[in-house]
Amino acid sequence: MTTVLVLLLLLAAGTYLVAVLEAWTASGRFRLAGPVVAGIALLGREFIVPRKPDRIFFEVAPVLLLLSALLAAAVVPLTPDLIITDLATGALFINAALVYVLVALLMAGWGPNGAYAMIGGWRFLGQLIAYAMLIVMPITAVVMRAESLLTTRIVASQAGLWNIVYQPLGFMLFFVAAMALAFLPPFDLPTAKAELAGGVEAEYSGVRLAIFRLGRLALIVTLAAAAVVFYLGGWQGPWLPPWAWSAIKILAVCATMLLAGRAMPRVRDADLLHWCWILGIPLALLNIFLVGLLVLVLP
User: Fold this and answer.
1) Which of 34, 158, 213, 295 is 20–30 Å from 104 (CA)?
2) Residue 86 carries which DSSP code?
3) 239: phi > 0 → left, psi -120 to 50 → alpha, else beta; which?
4) C-alpha separations of 36 from 42, 207, 255, 291 in Å
5) Within 10 Å of residue 28's Cβ, how many Cβ atoms?
6) Angstrom distance (rounded) from CA 21 to CA 29
7) Whole-number Å distance between alpha carbons of 191 and 21
């Protein structure tokens, strides 16, 4: 129980810092109290419900988005002992939990019975079809080297050489797919404020919108933590305690994810599909082949 509380507090702290970083990258103003002010403003808004919503989908979608991030975080270790559950199929469980992000966004698009929200939800479905294999296939290569689906074993397998060096192609593919999963720029088609007035967020207000945005921020932290476990050696590092190295690496990946797409134009869903199927999947297969050769030659 203590481990669960500690991890939830650390996830909450990471989510808060990511909110500060995201506001900074978007506006250029660094305000440490910004998320508190924004949260109070959201809680003070009137709760507006669309005229003819699918009420169950409308209410459940923000909560499901947050739960999917929390479920994936449950098998991500910050230290050898600081993990909620070290599942034997932990690496695949992360991918399975993140599938519910799609379900949440489709529910958020369908539930309000509005055009902008529905377009945003279907855009995210298009993104999923594009990047889904680019999540699973790099994880497969990581598991091949570790010879285990245990996330703690995956970290231990990188004691001599981190996977970002051992399989840089896999890291690049996973990183881009993680940005698309968190619908960060330039893959922010589901929200796209400039053209969809918020997309899947358009019909939400008050507490519901606050939960939706909290879930998205927690999703960014969870994906960054997964990237650290799979490719950046997890808690490994000199001098500092293991939890400190995990925290530093996770924040560094979060900052990179937030900054990477700001200067790029928004990618059309059709273009994303084209690039992922024509270029991304062959590269992911090549990565699996190269890692397989390395595992055989350098056991």
Assistant:
1) 34
2) -
3) left
4) 10, 14, 20, 45
5) 7
6) 9
7) 19
Helix (H, G, I), strand (E, B) or coil at 12: helix
**Which residues are CB-neighbours of 135 under 8 A, at least 6 positions away?**
95, 98, 174, 177, 178, 181
Lookup: tokens for 78: 């910050």
Q: Which amino acid is at 167?
A: Q
Handedness of CA 242, 244, 245, 249 (dihedral sign): positive
DSSP three-state, residue 78: coil
The residues, ordered by sequence, that sit 6+ positions from 245 with a Cβ below 8 Å of its Cβ are: 234, 235, 236, 237
**Residue with the two structure tokens 């290569």:** 141
Using 50 as the pLDDT threshold, list the residues of the chain that sit under it.
none
pLDDT tens-digit series, residues 90-144: 888 998 898 888 888 888 888 888 788 888 888 888 777 778 788 889 999 999 9
In 3D space, the residue among 100, 105, 103 whose CA is nearest the CA of residue 68 turns out to be 100
Contact in structure between 208 and 59 (CB atoms under 8 Å): yes
Amino acid (one-letter) located at 96: A
Preceding omega of 186 cis (within 30 degrees of 0): yes
- Contact between 217 and 19 under an 8 Å Cβ cutoff? The reply is yes
Question: Largest alpha-carbon pair distance within the chain?
Answer: 63
Q: Please, how many CA atoms are within 13 Å of residue 76, restricted to the half-sphere of its CB?
A: 31
For the chain, the 3-state helix, strand and coil shares in percent, each to the nearest 5, are 70, 0, 30
In this prediction, residue 253 carries a pLDDT of: 93
Query: Rounded distance, CA 102 to CA 190, Å?
Result: 11
Q: Number of structural domains, the chain? A: 1
pTM over 0.85: yes
Q: Residue 27: which domain range?
A: 2-297
Contact call for residues 137 and 285 (beta carbons, < 8 A): yes
Nearest-5° Cα angle at 129, 125 to 134 = 130
Secondary structure class of 47 (helix, strand, coil): coil
